[in-house]
Amino acid sequence: MTALLTPAPAQRRAERVRAPLVTIGALAAATVALHYRDPHVSGSWGFCPSAAIGFWCPGCGGLRAVHDLTDGNLGAAASSNLLLVVLAPLAVLALATWLVVRWRGTELRLPRSAVLVGGSVLLAATGLFTLLRNTPVAPWLAP
Predict the structure, then answer these.
(1) Secondary structure (3-state) at 61
(2) Residue 140 DSSP symbol
(3) Residue 46: beta bridge partners?
(4) Over the stretch 76-126, which tens digit does the pLDDT of each residue have?
(5) 20 to 30 A Cα–Cα from 103, which one of 41, 73, 92, 115?
């Protein structure tokens, strides 16, 4: 499966890269905020409604995991939200690819089958992660 790069519609570079840069900037600002305002402190970022009813959603522990990653503590981050730790490098790669493709003025066209398979695997992994962290089978996945 190879990606097909095609010329994008004519736009100025500044217009093409605006969306990726704003997205990356917002994520960077949120990461900095999470580094300086510790989500391990109860109530520092509010309360999770699903955790309040005793259900760990796939995002539970994500704020703590990002905070721990900014401190370089991979073990604590994985303990808070293993799925986030595993997917974070893929998200960084996807954002970097989006920016580079827009910078070059091309479009990245993935084969439909790759998008469907990748999306299905991501959805299944997230579902399995959510199921396992809410059962006694894998209590170590709970935040």
Answers:
(1) coil
(2) G
(3) 43, 44
(4) 999 999 999 999 999 999 999 999 999 999 888 889 999 999 999 999 999
(5) 115
Phi and psi angles of residue 43, each rounded to the nearest 5 degrees, phi first:
80, 0
Q: Which residues pair with 108 in a beta bridge?
A: 5
Q: Which residues of 35-70 are buried (b: 16+ CB within 10 A; e: fewer)?
A: eeeebeeeeeeeebeeeeeeebbbbbbbbbbbbbbe
Give the separation between CA 98 and CA 100, rounded to whole angstroms: 6
Helix locations, 5-143, DSSP H: 13-36, 49-52, 62-70, 74-80, 82-104, 112-133
Q: Which of 34, 82, 77 is nearest to 56 (CA)?
A: 82
Cα–Cα dist 40/63, whole Å: 9
Residue 45 CA, distance from chain mean position: 18
Q: In whole numbers, what is the pLDDT of the chain averaged over residues?
A: 91
- Show the tokens assigned to 21: 């840069």
Neighbours of 100 (CB within 10 A): 13
